[in-house]
Amino acid sequence: MTGRRYDPDRRDRIIDACLDLVADVGVAGISHRKVAARADVPLGSMTYHFAGMDELLREAFGRFARTISDGFEQRMSEATDLEGARAAVVAIITQDLFGTQRDLVLTHELYTLAAREPAYRELTNAWMRRSRDALERHFDPVTARLLDALIEGLTIHRALDTEAPLPGSVTEAVRRITMPR
Questions:
Q1: C or N: which end of the chain has fewer Cβ atoms within 10 Å?
Q2: Mean pLDDT, residues 55-67 taken together
């Protein structure tokens, strides 16, 4: 471990190390000591910057959710018409979300915490709200909610299914949900 007296990025490094460690060993496998070692900071830095592991996890998962949401919003903001919005949703599912094993694991670890702990449910609800807001730039609220559920479901299936998805199935699903009534 290197000695750092002035280290303005220490808190951010701890958060990044926490996310990396959760991706490697899961929430159940982390500890203050392991996060400090991964971040290359003294153990005392953990309690200096965070009241406890729960605060660190909320900060880390909050950063992760914001990062994913930022990419989602960027993709949707580039669409200028219905076809562009449909293509953006397809790209979110097939290219952006859970593009790495790390993101897939972190998302599922967050979902598991949110299923048990209301504080983490606030994070996932804020994430869903941002997604729906981005979708509502192009679709009515009901359609946006359906697309949000489709995005989550298809992304999980694409990540975990042992069979390759049918060609064009994502595009067809988005088209069906977004067809004018």
A1: C
A2: 96
> Same domain, yes or no, for 125 and 96?
yes
Same domain flag for 82 and 165? yes
pLDDT, residue 94, reads: 86
User: Burial letters for 136-169: b for 16+ Cβ neighbours within 10 Å, e otherwise?
Assistant: bebbeeebbbbbbebbbebbbebbeeeeeeeeee
Report if residue 1 sits inside a domain. no
Look up the domain containing 129 and give its range: 58-178
We report the CATH number of the domain holding residue 25 as 1.10.10.60
Taking 70 as the threshold, does the pLDDT of residue 3 lie above it?
no
47: alpha, beta or left? (left if phi > 0; alpha if psi -120 to 50): alpha
CA distance 113 to 47: 22
How far is 145 from 127, CA to CA, in rounded Å? 13
What does the pLDDT read at residue 1? Answer: 52
User: Do both 24 and 72 map to the same domain?
Assistant: no
Other CB atoms within a 10 A radius of the CB of residue 51 amount to 8
For residue 16, the one-letter residue type is D
